[in-house]
């Protein structure tokens, strides 16, 4: 442990525990897909060290967005999900529905982190490691939770949303630097279908890479749509082993990693539907389909149709909207889309 770590742990034990006090248990075959957890936690730790030593300019929009995101994450016990490579690659290539609006997206927590597989979105050989998303209500005051705020001696300012409506903040991080990319947009019945092209959102990014931020924002909306399409059983306060102190050393709590699409790639027990049409073998791109339901078919919701292999002997498709609620297995090495 470095001297900085020791001093920080002594002066801000609750904040140190909130940052380093949890580790996620990943399946061995998945562990190499993601940035190391210590590296991800270190970014948050380094930001607070810089803030407490006066090296953060809180008049800078990006720094204020980071403060809002970190404060809300700590308030809600840092909800964290992992995105599988197969799902993430498919969603990264999936176009948003043209009629998509904020009403179609349902947040379970006001703040959420989704850790991405390395290589999903890259810039100059460096991968986007995770996405932080949060919703800030109109006029909402964002503050750090107690007792963390008390032990910081009020050196971190309170941030108030000056917008008349709810705002959506998105932060993507590349570990090199680290470099932060950000999007901010209103979230009051906003049309989002063209947001992936950068025509709706204002970009507030200190390092301009429009293509990367467009892809980042489109992927975040696809992930949020996917999360809202089915219930998810995840409690940020559930641990396989709670955190504990051994002498002066913090032993992190262990929690089972939860994946965005962990139910999405189970093979269906039903045989694929088939037709008499014949076509060349190919992969069909994933896409969103608006389905009507309810009394008088008066309600609608979006369902994601997974990437599937078509052609060869007979054309067929299996999607997650079937009556049995099970999804098709998505191949992980598809490269073509039609």
Describe this protein's structure.
- This protein has 338 residues and is α+β, with helices and mostly antiparallel strands.
- It has 2 domains: 254 residues, no CATH class; 73 residues, no CATH class.
- Strands 2, 3, 4, 5, 8, 9 and 10 form a 7-stranded mixed sheet that branches. Strands 1-13 form a two-stranded parallel sheet.
- The protein is globular and about 65 Å long.
List keywords for this structure.
two-stranded parallel ribbon; seven-stranded mixed sheet; alpha+beta
Summarize the SSE layout with pairings.
Blueprint: H1 3-11, H2 13-20, E1 22-25, H3 28-31, H4 37-52, H5 61-75, E2 80-82, H6 85-92, E3 111-115, E4 122-123, E5 126-136, E6 141-142, H7 148-151, E7 159-160, E8 167-174, E9 179-186, E10 202-203, H8 210-228, E11 244-246, E12 249-251, E13 253-256, E14 273-274, E15 282-284, E16 287-293, E17 299-305, E18 308-310, E19 316-317
Helix pairs in contact: 1-2
């Amino acid at each position: 442990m470095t001297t900085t770590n020791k001093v920080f742990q002594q002066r801000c034990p609750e904040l140190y525990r909130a940052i380093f006090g949890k580790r996620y248990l990943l399946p061995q075959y998945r562990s190499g897909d993601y940035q190391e957890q210590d590296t991800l936690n270190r970014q948050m730790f380094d930001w607070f060290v810089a803030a407490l030593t006066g090296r953060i300019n809180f008049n800078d929009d990006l720094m204020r967005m980071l403060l809002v995101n970190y404060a809300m994450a700590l308030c809600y016990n840092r909800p964290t999900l992992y995105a599988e490579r197969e799902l993430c690659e498919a969603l990264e290539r999936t176009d948003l529905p043209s009629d998509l609006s904020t009403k179609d997206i349902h947040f379970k927590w006001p703040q959420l982190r989704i850790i991405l597989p390395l290589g999903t979105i890259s810039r100059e050989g460096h991968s986007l490691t995770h996405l932080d998303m949060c919703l800030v209500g109109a006029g909402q005051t964002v503050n750090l939770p107690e007792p963390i705020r008390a032990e910081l001696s009020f050196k971190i300012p309170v941030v108030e949303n000056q917008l008349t409506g709810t705002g959506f903040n998105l932060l993507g991080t590349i570990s090199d630097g680290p470099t932060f990319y950000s999007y901010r947009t209103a979230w009051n019945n906003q049309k989002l279908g063209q947001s992936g092209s950068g025509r709706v959102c204002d970009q507030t990014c200190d390092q301009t890479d429009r293509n990367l931020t467009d892809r980042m924002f489109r992927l975040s909306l696809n992930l949020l749509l996917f999360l809202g399409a089915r219930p998810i059983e995840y409690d940020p306060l559930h641990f396989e082993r709670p955190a504990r102190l051994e002498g002066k050393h913090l032993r992190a709590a262990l929690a089972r990693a939860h994946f965005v699409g962990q139910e999405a790639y189970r093979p269906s027990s039903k045989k694929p539907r088939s037709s008499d049409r014949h076509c060349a073998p190919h992969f069909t791109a994933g896409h969103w389909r608006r389905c009507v339901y309810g009394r008088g078919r008066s309600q609608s919701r979006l369902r994601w149709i997974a990437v599937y292999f078509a052609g060869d002997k007979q054309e067929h498709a299996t999607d997650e909207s079937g009556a049995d609620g099970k999804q098709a297995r998505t191949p992980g090495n598809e490269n073509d889309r039609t």
